[in-house]
Amino acid sequence: MTSPDLPAELKAALDGKLRGFSRSDAAGRAASISRTYRDGGGSGAIRSEADALAYALARMPATYAAVMASLNALVKIRPDFAPKTLLDVGAGPGTATWAAAEAFPSLQDFTLLDANDALRTLALGLVTDSFRLRDVSYERGEARATLKKADPSDLVVASYMIGEISDAEQRALAELMWEKTRDTLLVVEPGTPAGYTRIIALRERLIAVGAHVAAPCPHDGKCPLQAPDWCHFTQRLQRSRAHKQVKGAELPFEDERFSYVALTRAPAAQRLSRVLAQPAVTKVEITAKLCTPEGLAVTKVPRRAKAEYAAARRWRWGDAVMEES
Ligand SMILES: C[S@@+](CC[C@H](N)C(=O)[O-])C[C@H]1O[C@@H](n2cnc3c(N)ncnc32)[C@H](O)[C@@H]1O
Q1: Measured in angstroms, how far is the CA atom of residue 276 from the centroid of ligand 1?
Q2: What is d(CA 309, CA 286) in angstroms, rounded to the nearest whole number?
Q3: pLDDT 10s digits, 167-205
Q4: How far apart are CA 52 and CA 143, in angstroms?
Q5: Which of 23, 96, 222, 255 is deepest in the core (most CB within 10 A)?
């Protein structure tokens, strides 16, 4: 499992950029950018170098943690996956690229695509001292136009991106991303009902053209969850001093809620059940909500089944587990 916290090299690069910037100015910009997001706006509010840095300080640790949690889930299902090439669609400050580089030492070639100039400039500034990432290629432009020109990649990632485009655009982009996927496409969204709905729509659309789900679902069938329930996970991450200052936060950590899907060309060799909420542990039994290859199940593991109970005590929300273990 790769750590959900930003790698030291990226933290140092962000700290370096912050030198000479006022933290209270960054906090004001970050607050105004998140207000825009809350009101349904997108990254268009990020226009200057200072905006881009404020956004990265406030949000990059959390989106990085969500992408890393999704990549860790993918690696658990496909431990032999060793992609060489990456396409990061709507890359922004390069969050998913940094996470994929950490998760997959095999990656050699990184292509980032984004329409936002300020975020692209920041991303390129952050990788200058990185041995693995300093030669990334970062194309500026609309996602579909730049993606059409890109070479297919082993791994394609769109993190916290599809929520910024219209439904019709999401449908067209999903198909184009899949066309450019040699092996795996990972899409990550905020863990809200709306983020989940976008993930489910993309999942269904791409299964219809031959994709298989590697994670989180242990099946390629219809999602068994019924509204108001929705499939989402949570990842805890540590907050640095700068992160706390920019967010005006006290707690040394935060929990990022996210929804995701990892789609592959070949079906997964193993189908493990997914833990959909933190299991309830009592002295008598452990109760866990699972998505299994056969559908939704509320599994109870009695304490008297010693080995199974001991194994189930280690289950965490988001884990892939063998039900009978
Ligand atoms: C919320 S940010 C996420 C950035 C990064 N992927 C992350 O996880 O931190 C969304 C990104 O998508 C980009 N984006 C949105 N719509 C786009 C489009 N139509 N074409 C290209 N990029 C787009 C924005 O410029 C922004 O960088």
Answers
A1: 28
A2: 7
A3: 999 999 999 999 999 999 999 999 999 999 999 999 999
A4: 19
A5: 96
Pairing mode of beta strands 181-190, 153-159: parallel
Contact call for residues 191 and 258 (beta carbons, < 8 A): yes
Q: Tell me: the pLDDT tens digits for 227-251? A: 999 999 999 999 988 888 888 889 9
Q: 159 — alpha (psi -120 to 50), left (phi > 0) or beta?
A: beta
| DSSP letter assigned to residue 43 | G
> What are the backbone angles phi and psi of residue 163, rounded to the nearest 5°?
-70, -10
Ligand 1: centre distance to CA 163 (Å):
9
Which bin fits 318, alpha (ψ -120 to 50), beta or left (φ > 0)?
A: left
- Within 6 A (CB) of ligand 1 lie 42-43, 60, 63, 90-93, 95-96, 114-116, 119, 142-143, 159-161, 164-165
Which stretches of 115-167 are assigned E, i.e. beta strand? Answer: 137-140, 153-159
Looking at residue 324, what is its pLDDT?
54
Quick: pLDDT tens for 71-126. 999 999 999 999 999 999 999 999 999 999 999 999 999 999 999 999 999 999 99
Answer for the pair 137, 110: CB distance below 8 angstroms, yes or no.
yes
CB count within 10 Å of CB 3 equals: 12
Check: CB of residue 233 under 8 Å from CB of residue 255: no
Q: Is the pTM of this model over 0.90?
A: yes
